[in-house]
């Protein structure tokens, strides 16, 4: 009986211990889960994911992680501001800046050598073009030069003309010589010159050379035939242009310069030309003339550069790369050309503020020199501008919001371009009574179509405005 009672008591104690242990374990798990949930809720409230987007295409968005059309992992877009409470147009997690291909360059100040580069093409030096015309009517009996492009030397025969008028002039000169009258000799000699006889041909007639009704015409200069308008047997008159000759010992290169750089070019400046046909050689010439008009289609100014061509290697219509050296600008602020974003309405750059923060800053660009461009307003020396992936960052930023935070109101921007006040004034007129300092920051979110304000890429880009204020 005692054994039975002891056994029963033991079973009761074991049951109570089991129940007590289960209760304690359940309570601990509940407390642990509550703590983890609270921690998760806190983290979630700090880093709320708005959506997921493709790193290379801001328009490709999903509500959950996945792959972009290019096979890249989608990155989250968050809804919080930076740690310092300062807003910036775009934020990127510093750990992924290099992965996105973001590169920067320092804004420099100093002497900017204006090296203007452009393209051009070779043309004949029009000062050397000679028009060959006959001064008496007749027929071309023999044509010595039969193709365009043929080279001729001074004194070389071009064609032979049958003309009774020329024969008459020779006979009159010989008759005057026989008469001994100086006035007749002078008059007949002058008539032969006016009909195109050379000094040598007149002298041969004076020495008694047999008169002929076929007279040869010879080249007055060295050159090439650039135009040929007759054939053998053709009837010609004094108004007929027989051919044109051009000397290739000097050539022109017609250069098309951007109208914004035309003010820097002056007559007499040195120009260096390279040609694809001669990659290991360059020619040095001088600016000969700046044309006074701007092409209405290309918006360029034509500049004429003269080059010596003694070996006649440069030929018309050859393509060339021309560099014109102009006077350097001192104490200029400049950046790499690739950092400047040009649109139809504005010029801007993306400024890096460090720690993955970027601001889109409007600037006023000046002249370009090779791969550099002068900045007249909007930046200061020592800042860093984005030279790679800047278009992706610019597309993520809210440009309208950036326009309202120009100048000193925006930490990344140094100075306000001259056109800023006008643009802000325009926006104030479009929204009367709303462009006050207190409401300026709220205007972008209230504008139609402006649903995506300043973005940040925390593994991606995240908005810098307070989402709690939005409905």
Automatic annotation (TrEMBL):
Entries under InterPro entries matching the protein: 3HB_CusB, Beta-barrel_RND_2, BSH_CusB, CzcB_C, HMBD, MFP_Cation_Efflux, RND_pump_MFP
Recorded superkingdom: Bacteria
Annotated CusB-like barrel-sandwich hybrid domain residues: 130-245
Residue span, CusB-like beta-barrel domain: 250-326
Compositional bias per record (Low complexity), positions renumbered to this chain: 418-430, 447-463
Keywords: Transport
Domain CzcB-like C-terminal circularly permuted SH3-like: 336-393
SUPFAM superfamilies: HlyD-like secretion proteins (SSF111369)
Full protein name: Efflux RND transporter periplasmic adaptor subunit
Species whose genome carries this gene: Salinisphaera aquimarina
């Amino acid at each position: 009986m005692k054994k039975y009672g002891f056994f029963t008591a033991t079973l009761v104690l074991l049951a109570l211990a089991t129940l007590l242990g289960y209760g304690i374990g359940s309570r601990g798990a509940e407390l642990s889960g509550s703590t983890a949930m609270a921690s998760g809720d806190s983290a979630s409230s700090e880093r709320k994911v708005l959506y997921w987007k493709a790193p290379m295409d801001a328009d490709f968005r999903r509500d959950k992680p996945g792959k972009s059309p290019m096979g890249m992992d989608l990155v989250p877009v968050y809804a919080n501001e930076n740690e310092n409470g300062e807003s910036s147009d775009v934020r990127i997690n510093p750990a992924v800046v290099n992965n996105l291909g973001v590169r920067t360059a320092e804004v420099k100040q100093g002497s900017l050598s204006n090296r203007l580069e452009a393209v051009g093409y070779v043309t004949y030096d029009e000062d050397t073009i000679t028009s060959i015309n006959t001064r008496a009517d007749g027929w071309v009996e023999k044509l010595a030069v039969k193709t365009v492009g043929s080279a001729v030397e001074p004194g070389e025969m071009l064609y032979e003309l049958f003309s009774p008028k020329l024969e008459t002039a020779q006979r009159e000169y010989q008759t005057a010589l026989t008469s001994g009258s100086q006035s007749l000799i002078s008059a007949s000699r002058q008539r032969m010159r006016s009909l195109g006889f050379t000094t040598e041909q007149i002298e041969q007639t004076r020495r008694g050379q047999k008169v002929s009704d076929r007279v040869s015409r010879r080249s007055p200069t060295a050159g090439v035939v650039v135009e040929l308008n007759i054939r053998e047997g053709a009837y010609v008159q004094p108004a007929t242009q027989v051919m044109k000759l051009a000397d290739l010992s000097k050539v022109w290169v017609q250069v098309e310069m951007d109208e914004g750089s035309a003010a820097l070019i002056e007559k007499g400046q040195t120009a260096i030309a390279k040609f694809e046909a001669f990659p290991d050689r360059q020619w040095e010439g001088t600016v000969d003339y700046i044309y006074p008009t701007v092409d209405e289609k290309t918006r360029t100014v034509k500049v004429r550069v003269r080059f010596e061509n003694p070996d006649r290697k440069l030929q018309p219509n050859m393509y060339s790369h021309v560099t014109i050296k102009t006077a350097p600008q001192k104490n200029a602020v400049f950046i790499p050309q690739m950092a400047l974003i040009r649109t139809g309405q504005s010029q801007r750059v993306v400024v890096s503020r460090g720690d993955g923060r970027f601001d889109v800053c409007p600037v006023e660009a000046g002249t370009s020199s090779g791969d550099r461009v002068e900045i007249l307003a909007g930046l200061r020396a020592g800042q860093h501008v984005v030279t790679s992936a800047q278009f992706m960052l610019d597309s993520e930023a809210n440009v309208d919001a950036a326009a309202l935070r120009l100048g000193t109101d925006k930490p990344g921007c140094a100075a306000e371009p001259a056109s800023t006040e006008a643009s802000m004034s325009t926006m104030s007129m479009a929204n009367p009574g709303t462009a006050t300092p207190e409401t300026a920051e709220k205007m972008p979110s209230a504008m139609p179509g402006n649903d995506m304000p300043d973005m940040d890429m925390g593994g991606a880009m995240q908005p810098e405005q307070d989402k709690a204020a939005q409905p």
